[in-house]
Amino acid sequence: MGTKWRHRALPAAPLTLVLLAAATGCDGGTPDARPKPTATPSASVARVCDKPGAGPAKAPAGAVTVDPAVAGDLAAKTRSNPPNTTFWLRPGKHRLAPDRYAQVVPKEGNTYLGAPGAVLDGHRTNQYAFGGTARDVTIRHLTVRGFVAPHDEGVVNHDSADGWVIEHSTIRDNSGAGLMAGARQQVRANCLRDNGQYGMNAYKADGPLEDLVVEGNEITGNNTGDWERRRPGCGCTGGVKFWAVDGADVRGNWVHDNRGTGLWADTNNNDFRIEGNVLEENDGAALIYETSYNAVVRDNTIRRNNWVEGRRYADRGDTFPFATVYISESGGEPRVRARTDRIEIHRNVLEDNWSGITLWENADRFCNSPANTSSGDCTLLVKDKDRCAQPAIATAPLYADCRWRTQRVDIHDNRFVLDKSVVDCTAMCDRMAVLANYGTYPDWSPYQGERVSEAITREQHNRWHDNTYVGPWKFTAHDPSRVLDAVQWQGPPYRQDAGSAFRAQGGG
């Protein structure tokens, strides 16, 4: 969707998290007038921003002590010590040299530990806090704030080095992305808050970005720069944005009050497990999975998302069912190695969001098409996009392989609740959808007319079944004009939601 598009089982053991009952206090938001709920969240979530883990009060044996009274002490001591050194930052505000490119460039295996109250402050002068290409760097118990990374760049792990571990840290009030990601990176129990573009941007220019763990973090209030309005259609924001990540576990996070999308996987991501998260009160969708493959989305609590952006679409008369979980040109593909060969969305609770789940496939978006917004990228099944041209694209295998197809999506055993007195829905907030547009161009496209609409609706093994619906749900199939009630949705020709229960609001 964006204009900049910057791969198995994960080895790390689950982190033991301290989970506390959530309250509405940690808004982390920007000062615009967002609708706020009256209900108090009941699920347990990682309240990291209010109660960050305390670092060591004394320097560990063998550690190099860093003094906040000496500007640039951290960068200088990093340069003068060998790899695999541990640095302990005393309490106080640590500064770099007053140059925008001044930064800490770790050596392989370095560890940076913050004492209680240790802050690395960029003073709105330095662009980057930690950069370079050294592997296996660890940062714990440190607050990083006030850095001014440019658009599409990041403050911590600026160069997307591999094997970094960032834990129990607060990365907040920075421009750009608070955090970038490399392969085998572990991001645990951090507060990623109020950063200008992303909480984290998982993008590695020279790839591959494999085996990423994002666990037990609080991710809130990001995109303070409101970049989707400043650059309409940029697709360049989110609590976390993932680009071409192969193998990710995203679990146990509290992703809330971000301006825009909560979690957004965009362009040739594969093998995601998104589980046990609380995704709530994000202005846009809770989750977008776009032009990507093979994922499990389970056991998440998803509530009160998409109120701002959904209403914006509806108020301008847009009939597209812009949903809280948006699967766009993404599906299960057995030929792409992963822990699953489908997209399975199950055992989630979606409550009082602006609409539910939309499965979408743009008929005009494929490799080598002028309508492909993926900046020249092609699917994981075709290495040379120039092969996707007339006449070969009209026949197998390229007819299928040149498209990111929304296929093999299995949506089951979820609970969908909608109370319009809570959502204050004016229009279009009550949709579940599977659809495509009418294919139109270029003139050599083999996907013109209703071919893709027919395929996504009836031929590509997309199924809803054994779900529970509470409230006045409607269903869209084939194209935006076909709005169905539950009987029509379950009946021929669509035959969706076999074994599902439909109840009016207040019916249990």
Automatic annotation (TrEMBL):
The record ties this protein, via Pfam families, to:
Beta_helix
Region described as Disordered: 29-61
Give the keywords, sorted. Repeat, Signal
What the entry lists under InterPro entries is as follows: Beta_helix, Carb-bd_sugar_hydrolysis-dom, PbH1, Pectin_lyas_fold, Pectin_lyase_fold/virulence
Q: Does the keyword Chloroplast apply?
A: no
Q: In terms of domain of life, where is this protein from?
A: Bacteria
- Show where the Carbohydrate-binding/sugar hydrolysis domain sits: 160-314
Signal peptide from the UniProt entry: 1-23
Respond yes or no to whether keyword Signal is given for this record. Answer: yes
Instruction: Give start-end positions of Low complexity composition bias.
Output: 51-61
Protein name as it appears in the record: Right-handed parallel beta-helix repeat-containing protein
